[in-house]
Specification:
350 residues, mainly alpha, two-stranded antiparallel sheet, two-stranded antiparallel ribbon, 12 helices, 63% helix, globular
Amino acid sequence: MELSSEARRGYTAGLAGAALFGLSAPITSHLLGGSGTLLIAGLLYAGAGLALSFVRVVRGPSAGEAPIRRGDWPLLGAVTFFGGVVGPILLVVGLRRLTPDAASLLLNLEAPATMILGVWLFREYLGRRGLAAAALVVAGAVILAVGPASVHPDPYGALAIAGACLAWGLDNNLSQRLSARDPIRIAQLKAIGACIPVLILALLFGEPVGPPANLAAVLLVGAAGYGLSITLDLHALRALGATHEAAVFATAPFVGAAFAIAVLGAPLTLSIVVAALVMAAGLALLLNAHHRHAHMHQPLHHEHRHTHDDTHHLHQHDPLVVGAHSHLHDHAPISHAHEHLPDSHHRHTH
């Protein structure tokens, strides 16, 4: 399929965000010593919040992005709770009970969780080729999960990682509804909203602090592996939809496992090599999936960053506005056929 520029940016952002998050898991597992679970989880998002706040100060105005509206706050609260509080706490619990490579590989469960929720609850369309691509990516995850790195995993640790992936699957689908807003602002508020209650709980429970150098390192990991990663992921959700984003983000655990092998001394196994090839085949199939048919756009009134070089934004401005910008606008009913992904303009039934 000939990808639009928006789709190409979405896939690029998704892969970059996945790589950053994939690296964060094995690094975090080596920074846990002596520090409490809630403290580590809170500091990861504190690092994200500090970094994104700095970016917003340096960047200035929202660069044509849509602002957050009053009706967005309940959804942002749910995203913060599931993705910023429940998910990280369960992740840290799992990291304490599993080896870094095993924990990284179990994070593959986030992809099927996101896809199942996206198709079942949120009515996204994946298609036969998309399903086949997703199946290959998940098959790579299964190959990794049953490999030598995960022999006799701690059941409670594995259950904690699975719970984190379920929380993030719900977070991904809900975040797709917010992805039309300023991604940096959404990620900043999510990070701040997540770190404050978790750090308060860590203080109330009197959790051990641990070495200051480790805590500083956790803040840096949070800045890149959570702050920048979430921002990039929101760009991917906006362009691709939650189900396609999930297939792309499923590469994150492989990046984490590769890092554990190359840097932390974990063994390279045949299962990892085979899984990498299977996942690469799945991504190639996803990138070449064709989805084109005649479809009807219902009247729509919304706000998001857009340009006027596509077939969906034909409204006029007085005076003329050039380049990317954001404002409330209307879409008149239109019927046409073209290649498309399940973004905010293509959530029709099939």
